[in-house]
TrEMBL record:
Range of residues in the leader sequence: none
PANTHER family: POLYPROTEIN, PUTATIVE-RELATED, PROTEIN FAR1-RELATED SEQUENCE 5-LIKE
Domain SWIM-type: 262-294
Name by which UniProt lists this protein: SWIM-type domain-containing protein
Native organism: Vitis vinifera
Compositional bias of kind Basic residues: 342-354
SMART domains assigned: ZnF_PMZ
Chain intervals for the UniProt region annotation (Disordered): 339-368
Keywords, in A-Z order: Metal-binding, Zinc, Zinc-finger
InterPro entries the UniProt entry points to: MULE_transposase_dom, Znf_PMZ, Znf_SWIM
């Protein structure tokens, strides 16, 4: 199920980075809810498509991603993020052969905690993952390799370009994990108890509410960029206040601060620190260059972070399906007999809480 309002918004105004995941259903016939989400220009969850299947296996994932491909069509520079489930990897390569496929860095980190108990490795992995420059990554990863060569080999086998920001071959922006999908799964915690028809209506109703609320929110924004992007830009603007600019030509310059320099090219929207290149929001060096050349740094942000794009994301309306008695259903659909799935409920009390992934533990909160 993919609602047209979401598809229109994605095609016109959303970064082409999608996260996919599956979570268990808890109603009579069990099953799995497959979800695809992305992020809007205000860094909010933007649900794109849902599917219901028996379990997370090769056939189910290929079916779901093929339906997603049919709905989306070809998307330039598409980047797909998921956990390391083997079925997802096979299906992505088969259905989206031209897309880049990255793995969720949170899941890799949790697996690393399970397999290798040294906390120093976990810290180095996090730093290496979020490093912008290849040289910075190589230095940090070299330290990790010295501490535990087995852990380094484990990460290399996954494919460095699939989890390290500095080696990524596609446009991943700032989306490194599948937490946007998992956050949506938490929102749908109670809905997953419902029978399929009620579940689908609950999904439609949730999207209707979100579209109305966020459209009103976008209309109230007076800034050129969204609230989130404007906040990111302002924090970098404050950092750049003491940076020293040395011009090279009318669009290029060196920007120095505390002995560390970055070479900025405003024409190509790039900086040698690579924050500008990868996040598509001017870094502190680029903002200092904009101030020097008297250029608005807002014009150098990606179009996806503008308030105009946010409004466009939620411009379409989502309507109710109306009374069933008024539906016009083709005969070939009406005559179909849909039998219940061949499932056998396990003995004991039904599971309501997901199984924790490796490295996760119970979080206990105590009042002081």
């Amino acid at each position: 199920m993919s609602i047209d309002a979401s598809l229109v918004g994605f095609h016109t105004s959303i970064r082409p980075v999608i996260a996919v995941d599956g979570t268990f259903l808890k109603a009579k016939y069990l099953g799995t809810l497959f979800t695809t989400t992305c992020k809007d220009g205000n860094n909010q969850i933007y649900p794109l498509a849902f599917g219901i299947g028996d379990s997370e296996n090769d056939a189910s994932w290929e079916w779901f991603l093929q339906k997603l491909h049919d709905a989306l069509g070809h998307i330039d520079d598409l980047f797909v993020i998921s956990n390391r489930h083997g079925s997802i990897e096979k299906a992505v390569h088969k259905v989206f052969p031209h897309a880049r496929h990255g793995v969720c860095t949170y899941h890799v980190g949790q697996n690393l905690k399970t397999k290798f108990k040294n906390p120093a490795i976990h810290k180095l992995f996090h730093d290496a993952t979020y490093a912008y420059h290849v040289s910075e990554f190589n230095f940090i990863f070299g330290q990790l390799e010295m501490i535990d060569p087995r852990a380094a080999r484990y990460l290399m086998d996954i494919g460095v370009d699939r989890w390290a920001r500095s080696y990524s071959t596609g446009k991943r922006y700032n989306i490194m994990t599948t937490r946007i999908v998992e956050s949506l799964n938490v929102v749908l915690k109670n809905a997953r108890d419902l029978p399929v028809l009620q579940l689908v209506e609950e999904l439609r109703n949730l999207l209707q509410k979100w579209f109305v609320t966020r459209q009103q929110q976008a209309m109230s924004m007076s800034t050129e960029l969204t609230m989130w992007a404007d906040g990111e830009l302002h924090s970098r603007y404050n950092m750049s206040a003491t940076y020293l600019v040395e011009p090279i030509n009318s669009k290029e310059c060196n920007v120095n601060y505390a002995g560390i320099s970055g070479q900025v090219n405003l024409d190509t929207r790039s900086c040698t620190c690579r924050q500008f290149d990868l996040n598509h929001i001017p870094c502190a060096h680029a903002i200092a260059a904009c101030r020097f050349y008297n250029i608005s740094c807002y014009t150098l942000c990606s179009k996806y972070f503008t308030t105009k794009a946010l409004l466009s994301s939620y411009s379409e309306c989502i309507y109710q399906t109306g009374n069933e008695i008024d539906w016009v259903v083709p005969n070939h659909i009406r005559d179909k007999v849909v039998l219940p799935p061949k499932t056998r409920r396990p003995t004991g009390r039904p599971r309501k809480v997901r199984i924790s992934s490796g490295g996760e533990g119970k979080h206990t909160s105590r009042c002081s």
